[in-house]
């Protein structure tokens, strides 16, 4: 697996040290002028996790001589996978690479991220292509991500070449896979390729079919330079390196370019091809795909989907650009509050290479100073956390993740105050008072599940218990079924996928698309200890689920909080209404132990004094939840 972006950074540094000077002093920059648009094919590889996307990419690079086998094994040692990627069996990011084929063609393999958290980026990268290889594992057949990815390609209007992989496996069921592809995606058998990416069987044919079937890009040489940004990485010395697909004109060192989104102007310092190392070229012209370095010092100015064009030229931007929208938010606090400034520096460094993380300062009575960070999805958050721990040795406490909710109001005073009639709430403690809004909305997704027919009942039950709405069921060959549900995002960000796997002995796959907002009866659930609110445990929940969540939380707290000299009342409340309650009894101390003999009046006096003392402490003592208890509760929450 040599093509992984989470690891490109290492690679960039290596290239920088070893080759940077050589490249700069190298007079012989690549001359790619002869690769006119008709000689170019831009394509992606899309697949369900583990169906062989990276293996096929490696094979194509090997066949075209872009990398050799020795280089590959060298890379294999350098590139180790993040644990979260290994655990989930996914690659978060691959890499873009240009290959020369038969001396005639320039084939550009454009990376698409391999996870639903990055669906927007997948759809943007597909916009830079005219075709894609849809890889399907012959032993596993069509899976949820196969379907979701196919439809992204279909919507992008690009040519899809179905490739059935792993035909060498004893468990391969090629006939069933063909049938599933024809039934579900309306693909034709005669269009399918049958390969083993691992053993190289029919892989050269894949290259020929890319040339034969994928159209060359539609371009205009006479118009001023215009390009689509489909990826970016950050290098400490050179700033952001952006990957562009050039559709009009050409660009070379010294030209001035402008970002349509930020309106900022930059001078181009270098352009070139990703092979996959950065190789400078004399220019990039319409139809070609490459990288551009122009001293962008903030990765937030190099956004996927933006249009970079020649300064002062009037152009139409590529449609559909959105700045990244975080959908999962959590508090990040240092395990040792002394380490806050170290945590800040580490987060800043990590964000240099990730424009999609949103950052705001946060503080908590128990956890001290920290941050509230927003991510594209839960996996994105896990990868970020793991990198904080592995690359920066930071131990962090993460509060229960939540999704962004919306509240709508018609009160004109509020509308005037906020300048809008709708607020997005990402921090549950900032949820407004009930009388201050009219409607509440939550993000909902269209989910696709592929599982064995026999598991339908369990899967359906799981989805309904997560407030899912059943939409459709389609039986496909191989005794499997495709199910569609509308599911609230909040219900699937935590353990939904794990539960789904458990219910189906690992045979179900899940993917989602289209995040949209729907009306929902949401309430703020507050946890109190002796009437004092524990902010870190405040959550926004659906009214229907509030009772069950409350009971679980108060029981967990009852088991975790140590006894004190006085009684502790644990309550879960919505507004003033108590939904669940547990008490922790006061510690008993035998104050009469020293009274020998039968002086009953003295014993009673001591007991009376003890009871009054406890009452006094209970009224005055501020119960603070300790950090350890909070960590345990949050761990169990996950
Ligand atoms: N037997 C066999 N195994 C293969 C073949 N292609 C890939 N594999 C294996 O399948 C596993 C997954 O392959 P990858 O190339 O990592 O799959 P991927 O689609 O890139 O996975 P992600 O990028 O992590 O989603 C690896 O263990 C490969 O060695 C093949 O043609 N035959």
From TrEMBL:
CDD domains: EF4_II, EF4_III, LepA, lepA_C. One of its GO terms (cellular component) is mitochondrial matrix. It holds the Pfam family LepA_C. GO terms for molecular function: GTP binding; GTPase activity; mitochondrial ribosome binding. It comes from the Eukaryota. It is a peripheral membrane protein. Keywords: GTP-binding, Hydrolase, Membrane, Mitochondrion, Mitochondrion inner membrane, Nucleotide-binding, Protein biosynthesis. Coiled coil: none annotated. GO terms for biological process: positive regulation of translation; translation. It catalyses: GTP + H2O = GDP + phosphate + H(+). The keyword Nucleotide-binding applies. It is an enzyme of class 3 (hydrolase). SUPFAM superfamilies: EF-G C-terminal domain-like, P-loop containing nucleoside triphosphate hydrolases. Residues 38-218 form the Tr-type G domain. Its EC number is 3.6.5.n1. Belongs to the TRAFAC class translation factor GTPase superfamily. Classic translation factor GTPase family. LepA subfamily. Belongs to the GTP-binding elongation factor family. LepA subfamily. This is Translation factor GUF1 homolog, mitochondrial. It comes from Brachionus calyciflorus.
């Amino acid at each position: 697996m040599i093509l992984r972006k989470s690891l490109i950074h290492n690679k960039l540094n290596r290239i920088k040290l070893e080759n940077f000077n050589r490249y700069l002093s190298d007079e012989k920059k690549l001359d790619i002028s002869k690769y006119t648009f008709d000689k170019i094919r831009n394509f992606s590889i899309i697949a369900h996790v583990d169906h062989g996307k990276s293996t096929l990419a490696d094979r194509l690079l090997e066949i075209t001589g872009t990398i050799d086998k020795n280089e590959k094994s060298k890379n294999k040692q350098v590139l180790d996978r993040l644990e979260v990627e290994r655990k989930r069996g996914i690659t978060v990011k691959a890499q873009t690479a240009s290959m020369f084929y038969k001396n005639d063609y320039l084939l550009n393999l454009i990376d698409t991220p391999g996870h639903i958290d990055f669906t927007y980026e997948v759809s943007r990268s597909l916009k830079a292509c005219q075709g894609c290889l849809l890889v399907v594992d012959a032993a596993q057949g069509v899976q949820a991500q196969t379907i979701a990815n196919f439809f992204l390609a279909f919507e992008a209007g690009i040519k899809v070449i179905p490739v059935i992989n792993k035909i060498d496996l004893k468990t391969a069921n090629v006939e069933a896979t063909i049938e599933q592809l024809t039934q579900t995606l309306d693909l034709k058998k005669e269009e399918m390729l049958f390969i083993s990416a691992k053993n190289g069987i029919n892989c050269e044919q894949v290259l020929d079919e890319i040339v034969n079937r994928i159209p060359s890009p539609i371009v205009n040489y006479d118009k001023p330079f215009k390009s689509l940004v489909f990826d970016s990485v950050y290098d400490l010395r050179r700033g952001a390196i952006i990957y562009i697909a050039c559709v009009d004109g050409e660009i070379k060192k010294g030209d001035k370019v402008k970002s349509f989104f930020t309106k900022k102007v930059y001078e181009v310092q270098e352009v070139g091809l990703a092979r996959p190392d950065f190789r400078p070229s004399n220019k990039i012209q319409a139809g070609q795909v490459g990288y551009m370095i122009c001293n962008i010092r903030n990765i937030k100015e190099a956004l996927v989907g933006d249009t970079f064009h020649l300064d002062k030229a009037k152009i139409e931007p590529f449609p559909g650009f959105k700045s990244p929208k975080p959908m999962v938010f959590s508090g990040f606090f240092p395990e040792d509050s002394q380490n806050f400034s170290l945590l800040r520096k580490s987060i800043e460094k990590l964000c240099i290479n990730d424009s999609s993380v949103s950052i705001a300062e946060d503080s908590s009575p128990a956890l001290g100073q920290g941050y509230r960070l927003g991510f594209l999805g839960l996996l994105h958050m896990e990868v970020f956390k793991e990198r904080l721990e592995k690359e920066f040795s930071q131990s962090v406490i993460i509060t229960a993740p939540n999704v962004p909710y919306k509240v709508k109001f018609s009160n004109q005073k509020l509308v005037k105050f906020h300048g809008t009639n709708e607020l997005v709430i990402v921090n549950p403690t900032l949820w407004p008072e009930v009388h201050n809004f009219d409607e509440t909305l939550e993000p909902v997704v269209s989910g696709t599940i592929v599982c064995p027919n026999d598991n339908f009942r369990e899967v359906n039950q799981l989805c309904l218990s997560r407030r899912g709405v059943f939409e459709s069921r389609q039986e496909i060959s191989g005794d499997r079924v495709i199910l569609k549900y509308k599911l609230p995002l909040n219900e699937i960000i935590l353990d939904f996928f794990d539960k789904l796997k458990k219910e189906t002995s690992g045979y179900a796959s899940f993917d989602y698309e289209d995040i949209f907002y729907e009306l929902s009866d949401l309430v703020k659930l507050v946890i109190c200890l002796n009437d004092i609110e524990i902010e870190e445990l405040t959550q926004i929940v659906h009214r229907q689920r509030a009772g069950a969540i409350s009971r679980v939380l108060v029981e967990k707290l009852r088991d975790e909080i140590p006894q004190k000299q006085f009684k502790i009342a644990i309550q879960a409340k919505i507004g003033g209404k108590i939904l669940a309650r547990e008490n922790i009894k006061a510690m008993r101390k035998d104050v009469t132990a020293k009274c020998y003999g039968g002086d009953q009046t003295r014993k009673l006096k001591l007991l009376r004094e003890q009871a009054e003392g406890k009452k006094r402490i209970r009224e005055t003592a501020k119960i603070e939840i300790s950090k350890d208890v909070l960590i345990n509760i949050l761990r169990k929450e996950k």
